[in-house]
């Protein structure tokens, strides 16, 4: 990697961390430039403007999601603890996804959040989820339950405590509630209306 490519890569890595930790509304080129050890002029040389930079951060996140999905497909045998142990090791990407979740009013952020959640579901998570709950419903019904778990789970996350134990605790609580819900008359009625 050339020095120019290396510096560009460093900008993306540090920008990715800043986006994850502070959110897109607090993305500061001045702060990132201090972490990178370069001037703002260096930033504009590599990216031109902040929107192009954010697109690069979103692309970086998508590549991380693809790698995580490959890991999940190859290594995860059960939903709990395998998925949540791995997520506990991927704290910056998890925080990045949490920022996307909290900023879904921005179409690009919402689209990437949905795409990343769906790709993980299709790659490995739905199978583990269905097995964990003993679900025999259609793939569509299982996917809707998985979305319900995800919405509730992300809404509970605290960026200051993304330990595997906490992630598992939230998942177990929500799954318990889902289990009760899937045995309810309301769920039966809702499944019949399409």
UniProtKB/TrEMBL annotation:
DNA-binding region, residue intervals: 28-47
Domain HTH tetR-type, chain residue ranges per copy: 5-65
Family annotation (Gene3D superfamilies): Tetracycline Repressor, domain 2
Keywords: DNA-binding
Keyword Transferase: no
Tree of life domain: Bacteria
Protein name: TetR/AcrR family transcriptional regulator
Species annotation: Robiginitalea aurantiaca
């Amino acid at each position: 990697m050339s020095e120019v490519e290396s510096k560009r890569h460093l900008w993306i890595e540090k920008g990715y961390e800043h986006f994850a930790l502070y959110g897109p509304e607090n993305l500061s080129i001045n702060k990132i430039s201090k972490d990178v050890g370069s001037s703002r002029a260096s930033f504009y040389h590599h990216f031109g403007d902040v929107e192009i930079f954010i697109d690069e951060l979103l692309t970086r996140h998508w590549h991380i999601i693809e790698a995580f999905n490959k890991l999940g497909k190859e290594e995860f045998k059960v939903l709990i603890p395998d998925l949540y142990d791995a997520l506990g090791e991927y704290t910056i990407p998890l925080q990045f996804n949490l920022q996307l979740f909290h900023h879904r009013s921005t179409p690009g952020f919402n689209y990437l959040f949905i795409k990343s959640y769906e790709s993980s579901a299709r790659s490995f998570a739905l199978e583990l989820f269905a097995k964990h709950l003993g679900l025999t419903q259609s793939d569509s019904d299982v996917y809707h339950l998985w979305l319900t778990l995800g919405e509730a789970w992300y809404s509970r996350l605290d960026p200051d405590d993304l330990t595997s134990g906490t992630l598992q605790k939230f998942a177990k609580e929500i799954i318990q509630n889902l289990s009760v819900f899937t045995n309810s008359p309301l769920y039966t009625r809702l499944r019949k209306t399409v």
